[in-house]
């Protein structure tokens, strides 16, 4: 199953205060390997960016005023994530903003399967800092490009953190569905695939002959 690393930047924290999305970034993974397919856009939020948000991502009202509005990119976004599992750090935040944008234009809420890496990290490292920067430091992932929060940079870092969180440091290609290793995360089944090479009858015979030869050498000489 393909997965999407997703991140958003907004004008502020809460949709209850009327805050909107200013940037969406997505990176596609196929069995944990980036496919080089991405979705990225800056958005005109149709309101001012709060001072705190400006400090986080640096997107000014002037810069965003010439960008497309959410309704102009929504179909492309929904097509990109359709049928794919979403990997999000603090999914409650991003989904609340995305679903708010969808509600504003009369679209249905996102119903993709979700894996929240914040929850994975909290379960794995209870009591420790589980921000994206902290997890990058823990796993020795270079986050020097993250001078400010930007969606695609954060997605790239999160893809590396995610692989470490699920103990899959060496992702493998999807060779065959019969070799499935099921891993449970927060009551959700995540399927990963590893290549299994079967031993031939001839190889078994050769191995048996080799063992007999070694036994004779060690015990009768």
Describe what this molecule looks like in 3D.
The chain has 221 residues and is of the alpha/beta class. It has two domains: 2-169, Ribonuclease H-like superfamily/Ribonuclease H (Nucleotidyltransferase, domain 5, 2-Layer Sandwich), CATH 3.30.420; 172-221, no CATH class. The protein has helices spanning 51-57, 61-65, 70-81, 91-104, 117-124, 132-138, 151-165, 201-220, and strands at residues 2-10, 21-30, 33-42, 85-88, 114-116, 180-185, 188-193. A five-stranded mixed β-sheet has the order 3-2-1-4-5, with helices on both faces. Strands 6-7 form a two-stranded antiparallel sheet. Strand 2 (21-30) and strand 3 (33-42) form a beta hairpin. Helix 5 (117-124) crosses helix 7. The radius of gyration is 23 Å and the shape is elongated.
Strand order of the largest sheet: 3-2-1-4-5
CATH superfamily of the largest domain: Ribonuclease H-like superfamily/Ribonuclease H
Portion in strands: 15-25%
H and E order: EEEHHHEHEHHHEEH
Radius of gyration (CA) equals 23 Å
**How far from one another are the termini?**
56 Å
Number of separate domains: 2
Number of helices: 8
Question: What number is the mean pLDDT?
Answer: 85
CATH C-level class of the largest domain is: Alpha Beta
Number of strands: 7
| Low confidence ranges | 170-196, 217-221
